[in-house]
Amino acid sequence: MTGQVIERRMASQELGGTVLLDAVETRHDGERRVTLFFAPKVDPALIEAPKGAVLLAEMSVGSAPILIYSAPEGRLAFQTPSGAMDVTPAEAELSLLEGRDTIAAVRNGEDAETVLTWLAFHADQQRMTGAVILDRASPGSDPEFAQALREGLSKSGRDIRVILLTSDQPLGYPDAPPEAHPFCVPEAPGKDRMEIPAPAPWQSPLGALSYYEIARHRFLAEARAVANIDVHDLVVTGPETIFDSAVAARGGLIVLIGRHCYPWRVRNGQPTRFADHICVQFDSGGGRQRWCLAPSKLPKDAVWRLLRVGNARPDAARTQGFHRHMALRHPTPSISRIVPKSSLIEHPPLLERAQSYFDHTPVRMPEIAPDPLHGGRGRAAIVTTMKNEGPFILEWLAYHRAIGFDDILVYTNDCTDGTDTMLQLLERKGFVQHRDNRFREMDLPPQHAALQSAESEPVIKSATWITCIDVDEYINIKTGDGTLDALFAAVPDANMIAMTWRLFGNGDVRDYVDRPITEQFLRCAPEFARKPHQAWGFKTLFQNIGLFKKLGVHRPKGLNPQLWEEINWVNGSGKPLPREMYRNGWRSTIETYGYDLVQLNHYAVRSAESFLVKRDRGRVNHVDRDQGLAYWFRMNNNFQEDLSIQPRLAMMRAELDRLMQDPEIAAAHHHSVACHRAKIAELRATENYSNFFAELTSPRMERLSRLHGHFGSNVFLSGPGVIPDEVASRDPMAEWFFTVELQGDTAH
């Protein structure tokens, strides 16, 4: 027996905005029953039955009403708000697929060759003998598909009965773009930069979720078993078919969990095939849920939905899997448009299936290996950017040299306080390497331009350990003698160490004095400080062994996914970080923060006077954002005292004294201090900055700096102006919480 393709059309129509998707007629003990399937959001209360018809049941699937009537013979005219709707229901044809193992699927633009391959695979691997395929194509738009499917199925010689169901009404979400567009891919990168196509209800994702109940009433109620997957999904081959498993399952229902899969690349000029899909995301979680059921074993009130079966409980011991072939559902000339390639790894079962079942040679991922480490810990390097940071350079340099950094590469731009000339001097004396930041000609923010330039610098290419920190950030190592060697000894297998920020406030210090900031500013956020969003940002100290392609502000970027299993990334307490953070993570969470071994002291505001200069200077990353009162409010946390860095300052002091014994270095430092003081005086002489300084140092702002833990995220996004004075006066040690509704843009 050869296969068949049987074409059927839904009894759909539209009248004044009331859309009927289908009407199905069945017989129950000689009684005529008619089930109406309306489009989502149709109000069933506005549908009036014809004379002699009795409403027996009403339900809803995906906000689409389903009304079941006992109906008289003959013409049926249902009253709607726009008039009478004549309904000619389609007779149920349950005998077509009676006793067969079937799949209820949706086709949304896939070609006949793809569907034929899908049918053949499931006939071979799952012993499927029937399918209902909802063809989403608009009437007349793809006249050759059904014939191509019919001819191909006939040539295959497989006994598969296919019902091709079409509609005169669009069945997609009315406001969504075509499903094939990358915007409809959950993991597609760069959605905020995409130009989203106009709504296309004929091609958008399926919105008529009552389709599965339609298929049940018309064709599938007498099937032996029914699976719900689509024509770009392939079920994982197991010891028993999904159909046999559903029949044997307690309650007649099993869950199918789908995993997205992708090609690494498709050869130029070649069509995309199932067998090209050999990759999965190493950090993907969850899965696409579908089902397989045995209709005769389900409860009578079971409802077939897209993701689950209502009023029925699946047999949890029989869950099986399938793969969703994303480049067939979302055709693209470049796989990176629908998934970050840094997340992809080869999946051996997919590769085996491509080669063994499909007899195909897919394009493989290139093989790479991590760079070898040589003996010893090697050299440790810092990359940083500076602009008008002269007074603070020597302390920061002395501290990080004292704890064990060997090389420091500094990029500067537009300095007016001697920062650049001091660093040129320090370079001549062998303490740093200095470069001009060519960010304008590179058309990048200063920090991004510096990191991109640093990647080709010999001092960075030859470093074993690298981090990118700023001059207001201090690596506070709390284990052993406080050196890098002590940290590495505490986490000997780690090749990446996340150093979570501890936000240090101004400690109510208003005036700038030429003293080490690590000695002046002792008050900071508590360790458990989820808010503001920036509070748990981290920087990363990492081994330069080729796991990533480029430097990043918070962590290296561009993961080589072939090497993801080589990553041993720990938090500041030495605990492993989850794989979900490997590609994009940049801040700690409740589950991942840790300060036991190392924290990054972040002195983002310093004194109120120095903050005036910082605001005037501008930012090195988000250059379009002001550092105003809202920034001060977010970053100035004076909740508690933290002295954990103090035992390390003797090392810093000794190194700083050595630097300052050089008359040229001392002169350069004093010049920058004088420039800083002059700039402060200049700014405070203006009305704008004078008022701003008064705001920063007001008793209200000082109180708020001790209340961060009591505020919701929207308070930090809105700025301190949303906080009533009564709230600002509350006891910081009491139990209370305050937040607001977010209005407008984030305050800066």
Describe this entry's structure for a reader.
The strands form 7 sheets. Strands 1, 10, 11, 12, 13, 14, 15, 16, 17, 20 and 21 form an 11-stranded mixed beta sheet that branches. Strands 22, 23, 24, 25, 26, 27, 29, 32 and 33 form a 9-stranded mixed beta sheet that branches. Strands 2, 3, 4, 5, 6 and 9 form a 6-stranded mixed beta sheet that branches. By secondary structure, this protein is of the alpha/beta class. It is elongated, with a radius of gyration of 33 Å. Helices cover 24% and strands 23% of the residues. The protein starts with a strand and ends in a 20-residue tail after the last helix.
Percent strand? 15-25%
Helicity, as a percent range: 10-25%
Distance between the termini: 73 Å
**Mean of residue pLDDT?**
95
Using the CA coordinates, give the radius of gyration: 33 Å
**Uncertain parts:** 619-625
Overall morphology = elongated
Largest beta sheet, briefly? 11 strands, mixed
Given helix and strand content, the structural type is alpha/beta
Number of helices: 21
Q: Would you count the extended β strands for me?
A: 34
